[in-house]
Design a protein that fits this description.
This protein is α+β, with helices and mostly antiparallel strands and 400 residues long. It has two domains: 104 residues, Cupredoxins -  blue copper proteins (Immunoglobulin-like); 242 residues, A middle domain of Talin 1 (Up-down Bundle), CATH 1.20.1420.20. Helix content is 46%, strand content 14%. It contains twelve helices and ten strands. The strands form two sheets. Strands 1-7-4-2-3 form a five-stranded mixed sheet. Helix 3 runs parallel beside helix 9 and helix 6 packs antiparallel against helix 7.
Amino acid sequence: MVRSSDGRVRVPGSVRARWIVGAVVLLAAGAGAVVVFLPDSAAAGDPEIAVSRSACGTGWADPKAGPQTFRLHNTGSVTAEVDLIDPATGVVYGEVEGLGPATTRPLQVNLGNGSYAFRCLPEDAAAIVGPAVQVTGGAERTGPGVAPVTRDDLLGPLKAYQQHVTTGLAELVANTGALKDRVHGGDRAASQAAWLTAHLTYERLGAAYDAFGDSDSALNGTADGLPAGPADPGFTGFHRLEQGLWHGEDLGALAAVADQLDTDAHALQTSFGSSQVDGNDLALRAHEIMENTLQFELTARTDYGSGTNLATARANLDGTRAVLEVLRPLLAPRYPDLSKVDSWLNRTQAALDAAHRADGTWVRPAELSRPERQKLNADVSELTELLAPIAAIAEPRRTS
């Protein structure tokens, strides 16, 4: 699951502003198309493009190819988003979000030949597309920009992912019930095996954690940030039970922990029926799941005794695949490096599967040799980097 820096409180957020630039650079670099940079400032001589509820894109009097900076100036009274687009296709080549009233912000681009226009999307108002300009004399615009994804485009993927999570939660409650029975039966080895099965089931649902609300912390929170640490009464869920099962706590005393875990799993299954995974979050989670795998699982920061962090990492990989599969119809025509993502998913899976011993146990991260650790970290890091632009590519955008 996705965790915040303290390993417990999970705060969702958008990385659109962070990644849209990277996505466009990745898609268009070296192709003579538009490459967008994060600018620090704009010079007084740069063209000033007016943005308001009634007008958009005026001020671009001298279209030319090559690197340049536009000063986007909001002359209106409401905040607006501004896109640089191909007016014929709507493909986005540059974007500035949250341009406040009476504010000027720079947009740096490298223009290839083609037709361009600014599209302004003021808050609570229809989109306005400014005058189209034709850029000539530069490199041909052979590389793609980012074709916008709308909320309607995401309805199918969201429905499919909602069903995936619903099915996963049914499996979860079956597995937490079996875990509760094993603990009550007094068999520690069987309880440990049932714990891992149930925990991995939960970890495969990583893109839905925001929709889980407080249930996520109850089921999968760590002791980080709690006043008494692992001894705190507020420490519940999988990791609390893990601590007890692998540190010799009396199974009779742990029965109450297992009961609460099972109750919380059933409560989540019930509440999720009236919840909805946010379209803004779905693509973001594919990257965040693996980013947090790198930070928390490969470092064993969430190990409370079982030593199964690499099994969790493997489940997280399954969770990432589930997100990508529902988004694939949207990503295939928009992300040329999707085949690279698939290759690195397979490579990372092979590296993690190698840590699964024939007897069913998992190698602990600390037991990896230095070359093994370096390779695994490198594989997950490269996969995480390739997943990062997906958050911007598949985040829903206004087009009207």
